[in-house]
């Protein structure tokens, strides 16, 4: 039986272990490891992905990697050029380049540089936010979202959470969430568009939610997929940050910019929040010179971004048409992946697809098995179509 730890023990064990301390010693550093034994197992997601990649590598022929919502059209040529140009200076720490990146992100969003915190991907910052909030109280989240299901450690310790079911049409139930906020709520996590559903909230609704609830609890809006939204600039909650609200936004370049392997993410928030968040992460030190320079170049390459959006839309339409022609429904997606209900167990489908050299992901929620397919090139979507038809026949 796993030991049952209460929240204080749970935090203490994680923090002490991370600092290499034993009980009785006074910890001087509040830090926690970003490893698989971490307090909140965000990296469970990565572990699942790695398992899929291993299975894919063992598949007879690798045709399409559609399991991690990567962007097969990235990174941009301008980003690759910037990497080559900065590589000879990579013996130097990245300070000046990361400062430039931070400044350009601040300008892009109309906030001050001290409202931007960089990370090697947004996972680092998400983990830091969970550690920071878990130390204070509970984290509210939707029953099905990017971080749901990862709130337990193998030793039985659990992250204190408040989970709220999605609505019947798989939207965030903002009314139920607002009325569930109480003195224990330290953070509300909203993933918009949501992963794995791809469903997006009407921006005005989410904005009003942030207006009403942020005086009571910090709202973290994970905007990993916001670049695929109809109007990213106004669909983002960055305006609420600009208004001085207790809203923290996480962004990643892993998606639209095709930086999943380059690792750049950032947080936008109030300076005091980011100052506190820095205690739980590297404070931007994990970002490399080459990736930071590539990010600066990629932000400027608007033609590349338009190309990615156009290709994504074409491949997504092909996928929708494929599913319709096979009598499958799907959740209309505002991201670079599509979730749809399947008639067999997820693992069964995954294995059959893997045998055909195509990787996808599966979920079980709402009494239903689901398959999530990332949007790939047209060739990859055709490979999906062929493999899926064989797998379900
Ligand atoms: C909703 C969401 N948030 C955060 C991340 C982490 O992204 P990264 O660490 O690559 O920036 C992902 C990755 O897929 C995601 O789907």
From TrEMBL:
Superkingdom of source: Bacteria
GO molecular function term, any single one: histidinol-phosphate transaminase activity
EC number: 2.6.1.9
Enzymatic class: transferase
Keyword tags: Aminotransferase, Pyridoxal phosphate, Transferase
Domain (Aminotransferase class I/classII large) ranges: 65-384
PANTHER family associated with the record: HISTIDINOL-PHOSPHATE AMINOTRANSFERASE, HISTIDINOL-PHOSPHATE AMINOTRANSFERASE 2
Similarity remark: Belongs to the class-II pyridoxal-phosphate-dependent aminotransferase family. Histidinol-phosphate aminotransferase subfamily.
Name this protein carries in UniProt: Histidinol-phosphate transaminase
Source species taxonomy: Bacteria, Pseudomonadati, Bacteroidota, Cytophagia, Cytophagales
